[in-house]
Amino acid sequence: MKKALALTLAATMALGLAACSSSTPKTSEAGTSDGGDSATVANKDKPVVWFNRQPSNSTTGELDTAALNFNKDTYYVGFDANQGAELQGQMILDYIKANIDTIDKNGDGVIGYVLAIGDVGHNDSIARTRGVRSALGTAVKGADGNVDSEAVGTNTDGSSTHVQDGKLEVNGKTYTVRELASQEMKNSAGATWDAGTAGNALTTWASSFGDQIDVVASNNDGMGMSMFNSWSKANEVPTFGYDANSDAVAAIAEGYGGTISQHADVQAYLTLRVIRNALDGVNMDTGIGTADEAGNQLSSDVYKYVEEERSYYALNVAVTADNYKDFLDSKVTWKPVSNQLSKETSPEKNVWLNIYNSSDNFLGSTYRPLLEKYDDLLNLKVEYIAGDGQVESNITNRLGNPDAYDAFAFNMVKTDNAVSYTNLLK
Prior knowledge:
This protein is α/β, with parallel strands linked by helices. It is built from 12 helices and 15 strands. It folds into 2 domains: 8-78 and 264-316 and 326-425, no CATH class; 100-237, Rossmann fold, CATH 3.40.50.2300. It has a 7-stranded mixed beta sheet, with helices on one face. Strands 3, 4, 5, 6, 7 and 8 form a 6-stranded mixed beta sheet that branches. A two-stranded antiparallel ribbon has the order 9-12. Helix 6 packs parallel to helix 7 (221-232) and helix 9 packs across helix 10.
């Protein structure tokens, strides 16, 4: 195992027990089914983990530092969005180059692709759109210096101001690369990252200019698989997604071009491990960069910690025809951190955790099953709440008794809305 990443914050201070409303430290006795000693700690001082959706301005991407510093035991757990976005773009570019003799199906010298955008206001979606455009040479930078991530609608003539035609030279021949169409996949009820909408969009595009579509790109596998099954599989057009969901990985054997594993197994572990460490009053690096008593430890090649953002990020891996068999089961815990903790040193505690949308393919079929395995290993009794993907109140209205819980893990509908959750704890 590689030498663990030195975490600056964790290496310089051992985090104390979650602060009480008085100066009395939180007791370490096991919590009971009704919350145990959770009532002895003010809700505002209980551990909070934001996961999957980083508190931030959905327009500018600026981090919500107030939410990330809600209390001393507040952190974010996600993945390195920019690194993953670059990987996805490079994966698509490498595929095009490797298959240049067959990929331009109509022989017009234009490599045309369509792009499914998950949520125009989501940092991860923005990063993935930018990653694809940057790799394929279709990116246009705005006045702020950032790559434009807006949807182009239909752009078969190459006239959109949000993208430009790219140029790709392979084997002495120059090809044009064009984003033929892209849109935010939002359904009529307002839910984003919608798989059904993506499948319908591709069917519509294909009926209008299908012979020009050489590549299908998607911000996630849920939308990607819907597009693959609705049109691109039958027409042998490579489709690329993100998340390494089990069905998408298996589909690589049937022509799905590839996907990106955001190491959900590491993310799910970190989501609950940060809570466990805060509740136990141990150094936050315990079981992360430093081995715990059970031998759990992550190596520096699978995660990083950014102190000024109070954020843990899992690192991404490209999944292609070359290695997909290693990723067929997305629900397996990461072996180096799969050891059971002792209930004597880490007694059972109660955690309230929500997922923004019950229909989200990645969170529902990959992330939650992993959480449910890790909660047992970490002796956490987690209550899972799933929202409708449309409004925060569908989730927040169900946290009626925060006194009953020792810690909280929040997954917002919109990244701007952290205060909707923290207000419940004040």
